Amino acid sequence: MAAQAVRVELGWRNSPGTPDVDGSALLLVSGKVRSDADFVFYNQPSHASGAVRHEGKRTAGDGMTDSLAIELARVEPAIDRVVLAASADGGTFGRVAGLYVRITDAASGRELARFDSTDATIETAFILGELYRRQGAWKFRAVGQGYDTGLEGLATDFGISVDEPQQPQRTQPYRRPPTPQQPQNTTRVDHRPPAPPAPPMAPPVPSAPPATAPVRLSKVTLTKDAPSVSLAKQGGTSGVLRVNLNWQVRKQFKGWGSKFGRAVANHSDLDLDLCALYELTDGRKGVVQALGNAFGALHQPPYIHLDGDDRTGAVDTGENLTVNLDHKGKLRRVLIFVTIYEGARSFADLHATVTLQPQHGAPIDFSLDECTVPSTVCALALLTNNGGDLTVQREARYLVPERGVSPQRTIDYAYGWGMNWTPGRK
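Structure tokens predicted for TerD domain-containing protein:
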């Protein structure tokens, strides 16, 4: 079946002691990237052409996935293959159970190809497979080649320049598998009929994407055991801090099947609002939220601005707000939280991920735990001024409002903000 676009799903079983796993893609011309912009991963989630996007992680029971979206028709003609890779942060792939990569038709969801990795030991990065052009059509080939030098070693092997390398290079060279006339264990992922062979001609010189600074591979994942981090230590001392919330519905219900009230029929029914309580060093307090059109301001107090209201939860959009770190000295504390405006009576059966991206530092992310109480408001992260540096504290705290008490007033009470509240609308 023809596929105009595909979804690459990297999956594994999540259990105590399992390292964090990330998917990535490298767009190659004759075995190398043209520039660092041809590397798509968590810190560089979109290719300049728009053909490849990193969609992020999702949970489903005891399983985790990290996904990439690839629009085959938009892949530049110079690109002859897209390498699909995985890296482990905080351990080796020998501790990752059930690792697989599968390719599905983005339109129908039909599985087109799959490869399960079963023999990993000391590897910290893997080339699981690759999409390659052959006679005008796209195919998938399983590879299964490991590296013991992590994402850094894999990336530099293809020509990526890495900022602040963490270890000496000891990469295993990438050896392209042979391509027989009728390759074994490959699946065609056509988006047009194969073209007849063209007469030999000199290949055009491929144009490279715009030059970029060396890529940063560092990131910070906050957990219950390690819930806080200094922005200054991550390089986030100036510029802006982008806060993103994205979500998905874990299950689809009809009627009143949810444990805590009306279930969510689909994404479009659910409206989550990202908000922030702030306290400035001069004592002023307030809230930034869509309710009452209190969107804030970036270059004047409160130095926090909320983007438009999003209902999709998509990883490349979702709900976003921005904090101006050039004025961080004027912020005493900022509490970032989320409320359910409509579409559900609880966060149960929702999965949400929070990412804080400093302009000049490593991204900070964490996932929310499963909600087991009838909560409509969740404290996400607390930013506290410590001598001019902002410390980010993972909260991930579900609160249950009392009858007649708004979610905003509930979170105010819990964190002692001491504000007066009046009803508001969007």
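The chain has two domains: 5-188, 220-415.
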